[in-house]
Prior knowledge:
The chain has eleven helices and eleven strands. By secondary structure, the chain is of the alpha+beta class. Strand 8 (222-226) and strand 9 (229-233) form a beta hairpin.
Amino acid sequence: MSTLSEFLLYWRTTVSRGREIVEAVVHPDHAGPSPSLQAALDAWPGLYYWGSRPEANRLVLIRVTETARRERWWLHGILFVGTFLTVWMGGALLLGVSTRTLALPGPIDGLAEWVHMRAGAVPFAMALMGILLTHELGHYFAAKRYSIDVSPPFFLPAPIEFTFIGTFGAFIRLRSPIVDRRQLMDIGAAGPWAGFAVALLMLVVGLTRSGVAPPGAYPAPMVVQTANGVLFLGDSLLTLGLRNLLVGDGTVVLHQLAVAGWAGVLVTALNLLPLGQLDGGHIVYALLGDRQRALGLVIWLGLVAVGAFFFWPWLVWAGLILVLGGGRLAHPHVLERHRPLPANRWPVGWFSVLLFLLTFAPVPILNSTVGGIIG
Length: 375
C-alpha cells in the first residue's frame, strides 16, 4: 500500500483466507482517477474497482496473498464422466431402451453393439451436460474475475431410478470471502443466466422437432415417453409461451433436446429461489440486504404449502434447502454488507427475479406412469 497511500484520505485493510482486501477513500484531487493514481493502480499486484455514485471516490483493492492451491482435477474429471454416463442412460430411456438393458455388457465384443444402441441418446447427454457446465462456469469465471478462490465444478451423477435425467446437478465451492453485494450479484446471477441461455436454445430447437399427440390422448400439455412409462409435464410461463408459439395447440410429445431444455429451465428456477445459499438467495440479498430474511421465510412457507397440496417433491427440496443452509433461510453476510449495490447492478437483479417468475413451474410433473419418479 505504500505506493498508493499518498492518494488516499484513509483506508482499511482486511486479511481473510488468503486475500488482502483494502477499502479506501480517495483524496478529491485524485478521484477520477488522476494520471498519477492511475499509474499506481496499474502497478497494484491484484485487481481493483471503483464504487458507483454516491461513493464514486471509494476504491476496493484485492490482492492474493497465498499460493494457489492445486486442484484435484482427476476428481472433477471422474465426476464429470460419471455424470455424463448416467445422463446418457437417462437419454437412452427417452429412446425406448429399457432400464433392464442399461447395464454394461459382459463380453467385450458386445460393447460396440451396446454403445451403438444408445448412440442416439448422446445429443440429450451433451445438451443437458452443456447446460449444467455453462451454469457452473458462469459462477466460476465471475468468481475468478474478483480473485476469489473457487473450485472447479463438482458434478453429481444420479441413478435413473430416482431421476430420469440421470443427475442431481452440479455445484462449485467458494473458498475465499465475497467482499460486497456487487460481487455477490455478479457471481450469483452469472450462473443462472449462462445456463438459461443454453437451456433456452435447447428448448427452442427441441420444440421445433417435437410432435403433437392426438387430441385427448394425454391429460397434460407436454409428455415425455420413456421405456418405463410416460411423464406428464407441467408448464412454466416460459414453456407455456414457447409451446404455443412454436408448436400450437395440443399435447406436445417432447423431443429429447426439448426434454434437456425443459430440465435446464427447471434447474434455473430451482436455483433462483431466493433462499439461503441458492443463487436466488445471493441475488435477493444483493438487492435487499437483510430484508432477504423475511422474503426467504415467506417463499419457503409458500414452497411447503405447494408441496403439501400439489407436488410433494417440493417438500423434499424445502427440507434440503434447510439442511444445506444449516437450518437458516437467511443469506449469510458478506464482508461489507453496508456498502450499497451499485445502480448498474440493479437491473441485473430485477431481471433475475423476473427470470425466476418465468421459469418456475408450481407442478413440474403432473403425473407419471414411470416408477420411482413421483409415484
